[in-house]
Amino acid sequence: MDTQQMLYEGKGKKLFITQNTDEVLVEFKDDLTAFNAEKKGSEQGKGALNCEISTAIFELLAKEGINTHFIKKLDSNHMLCKKVDIIPIEVVVRNVATGSLTKRLGIEDGRVLPFALVEFYYKDDALGDPIINDEHCKILNITQDMSELDFLRAQARRINDVLSAFFIERKLRLIDFKLEFGKDSAGNILLADEISPDSCRFWDKDTNDKLDKDRFRQNLGNVKVAYEEVLKRILQK
Ligand code: TMP
Ligand code: ASP
Question: What are 182-233's pLDDT values in tens digits?
Fold first, then answer.
């Protein structure tokens, strides 16, 4: 792997070129960051857990007709994906109020929202990923075709429906999650990045125990144990 040219290094993953210009190799790192990387840590084996969890979720979504960048898992912490240009929007879906939503709007933590809330954040670390609306997207030149934003929202809602149903059968409440999308060389919009306890919040259905990166953000301990529990439940049936 070391001999391949790295295309990009993010907080949780590295991307490498492959012989095929339409494909990239994605390496899942053990690093953990929070609060725009103000808090840093590492958990041995976390990358492999997220790789396996993301693989299972991308395969589930593909079966449900959602187009994703995922091609195949290669080894414990590498997957082969279609190369896409990432659309610089973090699409967040929320079923239950927690995290930044409770802080921004003063909503009580844990309140079930009356409908799945979809929000856009501008993917820009220097700005701290500010929340944006469709008109901001136009001004920022993220897209001039506003129907693309409707498509992102519709995909996010479909993914939420599939994943919420999948996880509740495994006694996990899908509280909220973040998605990223990209365009392939033909201009198709594909779900990209990862879906893992780094990018989702999962609460145990019976105890509301947090089984995601909030354990790291809030110094709750047992981060890896929580990720292992999520994987175990995904593989349960
Ligand atoms: P928030 O409540 O902090 O805005 O987070 C909403 C969801 O998005 C939560 O599931 C965690 C996820 N998320 C990321 O994946 N990356 C990020 O940079 C942030 C801020 C949140
Ligand atoms: N992923 C972001 C960061 O590293 C924030 C977060 O997930 O809390 O810094």
Answer: 999 999 999 999 999 999 999 999 999 999 999 999 999 999 999 999 999 9
Give me ligand 1 centre to Cα 46, in Å. Answer: 18
Ligand with the closest atom to the CA of 93 = 1
> Is the pLDDT confidence value at 164 over 60?
yes
Q: What CA–CA distance (Å, rounded) separates 21 from 213? A: 33
Between vectors from CA 74 to CA 46 and to CA 186, what angle results, nearest 5°? 105
| Ligand 1 site, residue 199, Cβ cutoff 6 A | yes
| pLDDT digits 0-9 by tens, 97-110 | 999 999 999 999 99
Kindly report the pTM of this predicted structure: 0.97
**What is the Å distance from ligand 1's center to 35 Cα?**
9
Q: Which residues form the pocket of ligand 2, taking CB atoms under 6 Å from any ligand atom?
A: 11, 33-37, 213, 217
